[in-house]
Amino acid sequence: MKPFLAQPPSRFRTRAKAALANSQMQAATDAATFRLHQGRLDAWDALQDVEALRERAHAIRMETVDNLDAQVAQFAAAAEAAGANVHLAGTADDACTYVADVCRRRGAKLVAKAKSMLSEEIRLNDALAAIGVDAVETDLGEYVAQLAGEHPVHILAPALEKTAADIAELFARDGDPVEPELEALAGVARRRLRGVFENADVGITGANFAVAETGSICLVTNEGNAGLVTALPPVHIALVGMERLVPRLADLAVLLQLLARSATGQPLSSYTRLLTGPRREEESDGPEELHVVIVDNGRTNLGHGKYREMLACIRCGACLNVCPVYRKAGGGSYSPVYSGPMGAVLVPLLVGLDKAPSLPHASSLCGACTAACPVKIPLHELLLDLRRDLVGDGVASRKERIAFQLWSLAWSRPRLYRLSTTAARALQPLASLAGPGRRWAAGRRIPRLQKRYRDR
Amino acid sequence: MTHASLVETFATAASAAGFRVHRGRPPRIEGAAVSNASFGLADTGSVVLASAPDEPRSRHLLADVHVSILSEVRILQGLPELFAAVGDDLPSALAIVTGPSRSADIEQRLVVGVHGPREVHVVLVP
Amino acid sequence: MPSVQLFATCLGDLVVPEAVVDAARLLREAGFEVEFPRAQVCCGQPAFNAGHHAAARRVAGTFVRAFHRRSPLVCPSGSCATMVDRYLPDLVSADGYDIWELSAFLDHHDANLQPCNAGRQLAYHDSCHMLRELRIADAPRRLLKRSGAELVALPRPDLCCGFGGTFSVRQPELSVAMADDKLGGARAADALVTADPGCLMHLAGRVERTGGGMPVLHLATALARGIEP
Question: What pLDDT does B26 receive?
Answer without folding.
Answer: 87
